[in-house]
Amino acid sequence: MIPIDQLIHHPHNPRLDLGDLTELTESIRNQGVLQNLTVVPEAEFPGDDHYLVVIGNRRMEAAKLAGLAEVPCVISDMDYNTQIATMLTENMHRTDLTLYEQAQGIQMMMDLGLSQGQISEMTGFSRTTIKRRAEMAKLDKETLKEKCTQLTMDEMDQLMKIRDIDKRNELLKEAGTDNFKWRVGNAVKEQKLQDTYNQVKHILLQAGCIEKSTRGVTDFWEKYEYLLYSTSIDLENYKAGENILPEDNRQLFFCREYGYVRFWAEQRKETVSADEDDENDEAQAPAELSDEEIQRRQEAEEVRNAWAKLEEIEEHARESREEFIKTLTVKQKDSRKALDWMMISLAAGFIEDALASLMPDDIPDDEDEETYYLKWTCEQVRTNPMLYAQIMNKTFFDDQRCVMNQWRRDEKPEYRRNSAMSTGYDWLEDFGYPISDEERDYLYGRLDCYGKAEDE
């Protein structure tokens, strides 16, 4: 038994916040301290009978609040590295540490010269876990400390996929907002596309192509011819080893536009016969483009870019929705809300086609169609909780877009309000979906890539 006034909090305990001690204090007041504290002699005061608490800092503070004068302890002679590892392991296994505290604890051990493998052996955590926490420690400390309680481990793992530390810190500031997952997802996807582009770029440069960064500039359109859309490289679906060079024997130029690589070539030269007195034939210089033709090509490029940007946003929105819907099950407390949304979708005429593809063909003679839809769906949702989200997803989002001219690519996308999608997003938000600003702009016609909107 050691007097409490001889016990000192370990100065390098990864756990910074002891949390609410109310219940623990009451328990100790009634039953005493039932589990020994683990302490080590305070090295700075040899022979002074003071000890650092390695395990049991919360119990020590609660015992003070409960009015105890002494507490049961086990005195250990563990070295400093083992002390840090023990405190880290004790708290992490009890999920007591925040992500910030976990990251700082791992970094503390690495600062002592321990490798990730050694830390893994000392703490019992996998090397993957140690590596992830070490990556977290690279983040801005103040921002991580502020935002860590608003992040799940899955969200942090997604953030750690981004190699650029400045980009990570920029996105970390968005934690806790509806835009966080959307923007992290965009950044991860962009990083992957850039990696693929770097591979493609290397191949094209090796083949003698020239990278261009000037687009929509007058002298660029005067000198080069834009190749057919079919020659473009889709970076998202690119597979290593594919033949990606257009069949054209002219000097080729390329640049990246969103998720694609586009090609240009030198204007074709038309040769003419020289005067008989000339010793050599001379190639006629390429004809200059008129201002109208240059403007037409620039406008065509803007249209292509607008469609590419829109499709990128639509694809990311679809992926984000489906990731959320995969985990959406209707809990008992939400059954009434789920039924209300079914009624809304039926009343608006959205749901029949979705149900028709899933339910039996034959409707009993004594049932009207709408009532049968509801009964059948309620039964299926009761026995298969995942089915409800699948039905509603098909109802609101299958083949739906907020574009009037989706089959015409000769002008910018024209916005139209899509009632099914708008209602679908209302449904998703009601079940906890974090809709991003970009998705809202898509739904309500505020994207820069939209052309004219539908008539009011």
Question: How does this model look, in words?
Answer:
The chain is α/β, with parallel strands linked by helices and 456 residues long. Among the domains are: 2-139, Conserved hypothetical protein from pyrococcus furiosus pfu- 392566-001, ParB domain (Alpha-Beta Complex); 328-443, no CATH class. It is 49% helix and 9% strand. The protein has 18 helices and 11 strands. The chain has helices spanning 22-31, 57-66, 80-93, 99-111, 116-123, 127-136, 141-147, 153-160, 165-172, 180-206, 218-223, 291-326, 335-347, 352-356, 369-383, 385-397, 419-430, 437-443; strands at 2-3, 7-9, 37-41, 51-55, 70-71, 73-75, 210-211, 224-226, 233-234, 252-257, 260-266. The strands form 3 sheets. Strands 7, 8, 9, 10 and 11 form a 5-stranded mixed β-sheet that branches. Strands 2-4-3-6 form a 4-stranded mixed β-sheet. It has a two-stranded antiparallel sheet with strand order 1-5. Helix 1 (22-31) crosses helix 2 (57-66), helix 3 (80-93) runs antiparallel to helix 4 (99-111) and helix 4 crosses helix 6. The radius of gyration is 32 Å and the shape is flat. Mean pLDDT is 81; it is low at 276-285.
- Determine the mean pLDDT: 81
CATH topology-level fold name of the domain at 2-139: Conserved hypothetical protein from pyrococcus furiosus pfu- 392566-001, ParB domain
Distance from N terminus to C terminus (CA atoms, Å) equals: 81 Å
Query: What's the total count of β strands?
Result: 11
Share of residues in helices = 40-55%
User: What composes the largest sheet?
Assistant: 5 strands, mixed
Topology of helices and strands:
Elements: E1 2-3, E2 7-9, H1 22-31, E3 37-41, E4 51-55, H2 57-66, E5 70-71, E6 73-75, H3 80-93, H4 99-111, H5 116-123, H6 127-136, H7 141-147, H8 153-160, H9 165-172, H10 180-206, E7 210-211, H11 218-223, E8 224-226, E9 233-234, E10 252-257, E11 260-266, H12 291-326, H13 335-347, H14 352-356, H15 369-383, H16 385-397, H17 419-430, H18 437-443
Helix pairs in contact: 1-2, 3-4, 4-6, 5-6, 15-16, 16-17
